[in-house]
Amino acid sequence: MKCTHKLNKIIDNWKGGLDLSANDHIGDFRSLEDYIDEINEKPEHYMPISLDVKNKLLEANTIYHLRAFAKDIKSIDIYGINFSDVVDQLYVMVFPEETFIPSDQMVTIFDQIVKRCKYDVTLDINEYRGRDHNMTIHDFIEQVNMFHDEKEIDDDLAEEIIEADRVISLQMYPDGSVGFYKIYGTDLEEIFYDAHECLDSNDKDRRSYPYNGDPNHQKYITQEEEL
Question: Looking at the domain assignment, is residue 109 inside a domain?
Fold first, then answer.
């Protein structure tokens, strides 16, 4: 089973939200080991990372952190070295009765996005369910659009999100800790392909306007400025 198919099945059966981040430590200018140690120092906020998993993450020099949350349960934290790794772990928890078949272990399209970004990448699924248990998907769309002159989620996409009862966002920092791309939608694979198109455009801009190395330098007019 493809990894994206597994995640879609989890989304359809999970009543809360999911947050997947890759290499968060880079945006915070910390080493991976310091980042892992900090997680383990906060057991009230995160499930700890075992020594075996820590060594695996350090060897790969990467960390994927998948957090699953829902009303009236403690958040579940899963750590791994790639997209398939964390999704497979959650799949076993959500569907323990099924015979486990590992996802296709080829580098997924999401892993390719992570490799193309020098800073962190975050995938949020139904994140409004974790913000406020009384928040509806309509409230979430209104809140997203409130802070922008032009709608981040236009009327057609809003209708699609409401009908699907699913909202997915992908935020990625390809070059620095300030300029980022954010994509909203309802279909994982469509969002991933759109992300690669954004990064292709970003690569063209980089060749035209070389980045000067300053993380506060806003490089591309196609990127948003983080408020």
Answer: yes
